[in-house]
Amino acid sequence: MQGKQGSAAATAAEALRQRILDGTYSPGQRLPSATAIGNEFGIDRGTAARVLAQLRQTGFIITKPGSGSFVRTFEPIRRSFPSRLTAWREGQAIQDADTGKRARMVEVAVGEVLASEAVAAELAIDTDAPVLRRSRRFAVDERLVQLADSFYLLDLVRSTPIVYTDTGPGGVYARLDEIGHAPVRFTERLRARMPMPTETEALELPGGTPVIAITRMAYDSEDRCVEVTEMVLDASAYELEYHAAI
């Protein structure tokens, strides 16, 4: 019986996945109940519930308590580089350029840490020298989408609002501008990879979801690196757009 149930459950899971992929169940649509799935595929209700749990863990559906399971829907975030990095000049946060008026949540933690070898190399300081770190976790439309850690020279930012969780209109770059170190040039390095366990947990990623790791350096008019930011993006939530003049 267990073998038959397992085979039927695999058939049910694959059939439901295919219906989502081909649009039979459209984004936002409510899926049949576990009872209905069980009746259709000849499995008991508990096994059908595990099929739905598998679809949820792999990112195909979400479950709303008391309402049922629904096909996951999310409008990809278009992250446009480098134009997004000028939003601070209008007193906006950089993330405003990505998400506009979409509901956004950010958790911020600020404190001193010892610079890693990679961060120290970019900031031209010794490894393990103290730096200021601003850590953020972003959610858009109630979905966790990005982790970001930014690092700054302590002597440069110690007496600025950059040491606070709320840096004021225009964010960090506006505050750097006020002390004569506005960023005028940026470099980004990207790498697609599978997430570390801590990243999977922090972003609540379904199994098998890759991430995009981005390291950005910001340079002032004297070509001094004034910020290093290490980001981890849920690859399924973003569309990356790059512009360059030639």
UniProtKB/TrEMBL annotation:
Keyword annotations from UniProtKB, A to Z: DNA-binding, Transcription, Transcription regulation
- The highest taxon in the source lineage is Bacteria
Q: Which CDD domains match?
A: WHTH_GntR
Q: What range(s) does the HTH gntR-type domain occupy? A: 6-74
| Keyword field contains DNA damage | no
Q: Which SMART domains match?
A: HTH_GNTR, UTRA
Molecular function as annotated in GO: DNA binding; DNA-binding transcription factor activity
GO BP term, pick one: negative regulation of DNA-templated transcription
Q: Does the keyword Nucleotide-binding apply?
A: no
Q: PANTHER family given for it?
A: GNTR-FAMILY TRANSCRIPTIONAL REGULATOR, MANNOSYL-D-GLYCERATE TRANSPORT/METABOLISM SYSTEM REPRESSOR MNGR-RELATED
Name of the molecule in the record: GntR family transcriptional regulator
Q: What is the lineage of its organism?
A: Bacteria, Bacillati, Actinomycetota, Actinomycetes, Glycomycetales
